[in-house]
Amino acid sequence: MLDKMAFFIYVIRSGSISSAARRCNISVSAGSRWLQELESHFGTALCYRSNRLLEATHAGQTLFEEFSPLVDSAERITRKLEDYQSHEKGHIDIACTPVYANHFLMDKLRHYANDHPEVTFNINVTPWALDHASTSDLMISANASYQAIVKRFIASEKRANAMPIRRCGLPRLPE
């Protein structure tokens, strides 16, 4: 029962059954079944869907508030005991915007994962990364630079007269 209650905490923190299932190393269908069993055990609904996320009902909020500190304590104890090991190991939840994920993050994580195979990642790539700031270990919000887009366009335009660019350089600000 404690595993199912911890799973519920992860569902509410992430707003997603699939994200919580990845965190607990179970299938999404098993996670859905765990939620149903937990609701059946307590005899009440614990969560409902809203806009983009799953949210706790009043009963679910009570469970979350009471049990969440225990999950945090268990995670803290686990990390302390894992510190006795000689290699890096663990799980990192990352929420980031598509711009950052596509241009920077994936390459960095690939190199890190090759060097540290015992570290796992859950990457939530979403334009609403700020919505997940409280439930992620790391949250990165980045937007495309208008200036870089303009420079790339002008530099790649084959029909443009290159003389003004050679004489004045690429524009620093869009006009």
UniProtKB/TrEMBL annotation:
<feature type="domain" description="HTH lysR-type">
    <location>
        <begin position="1"/>
        <end position="57"/>
    </location>
</feature>
<dbReference type="InterPro" id="IPR036388">
    <property type="entry name" value="WH-like_DNA-bd_sf"/>
</dbReference>
<protein>
    <recommendedName>
        <fullName>HTH lysR-type domain-containing protein</fullName>
    </recommendedName>
</protein>
<dbReference type="InterPro" id="IPR036390">
    <property type="entry name" value="WH_DNA-bd_sf"/>
</dbReference>
<dbReference type="GO" id="GO:0005829">
    <property type="term" value="C:cytosol"/>
</dbReference>
<dbReference type="InterPro" id="IPR000847">
    <property type="entry name" value="LysR_HTH_N"/>
</dbReference>
<dbReference type="Pfam" id="PF00126">
    <property type="entry name" value="HTH_1"/>
</dbReference>
<dbReference type="GO" id="GO:0003700">
    <property type="term" value="F:DNA-binding transcription factor activity"/>
</dbReference>
<dbReference type="InterPro" id="IPR050950">
    <property type="entry name" value="HTH-type_LysR_regulators"/>
</dbReference>
